[in-house]
């Protein structure tokens, strides 16, 4: 009987040993797969995407100017001009005339400039704004100024005086600043003092 008990105990110990060995192999195998530095070959598709930062370049829309048919007197450059709104109905197309032709640096889109101006309108035929005697500085681009002003100043030279007549589409249209009527044709005389490239 003792021999049978010893064999039964050996079988039981052998079974426990086999079960422990199987569990150990499973645990070690799983751990080895999870933490192995060698992984089975895989195919990886890498997609690269380049995001280009948004750049805003403001370019004045092309405006074809006609000559001013009845310009204001030229006056003296650097002194407040006498702006005279032409008689009759406002023109439907923009007009431009050099009252005094400058000889200095030429203004191009994107330049910083210093100028003085007088503004009148067809509705009242009176001066609405004047920068004289305090010049202002700005950038020649449509994000800063009305499109007709930008297109009308392009090519102007320092020391010059230019008159612009701008219909509403090239001026403020339906969204003017305070003091300027909606959808009004505007008349500017501009003295260009300085251009910085």
In short:
The chain is α+β, with helices and mostly antiparallel strands. It is built from two helices and seven strands. Strands 1, 2, 3, 4, 5, 6 and 7 form a seven-stranded mixed β-sheet that branches.
> Approximately how much beta-strand content do the residues carry?
15-25%
- What is the domain tally? 2
- How far apart the termini lie comes to 113 Å
By DSSP, the count of extended strands is 7
> Average pLDDT, to the nearest integer?
82
Shape: elongated
Provide the helix percentage: 10-25%
What does it look like?
With about 200 residues, the chain is an alpha+beta fold. The chain folds into 2 domains: about 1-35; about 65-195, Chitinase A, domain 3 (Roll), CATH 3.10.50. The protein contains 2 helices and 7 strands; from the N terminus they run H-E-E-E-E-E-H-E-E. Strands 1, 2, 3, 4, 5, 6 and 7 form a 7-stranded mixed β-sheet that branches.
Q: Which helices and strands, and how do they pair?
A:
Layout lengths: L1 H34 L30 E2 L27 E6 L11 E10 L5 E4 L5 E4 L7 H7 L7 E6 L19 E11 L1
Parallel strand pairs: 1-2
Antiparallel strand pairs: 2-6, 3-4, 3-5, 3-7, 6-7
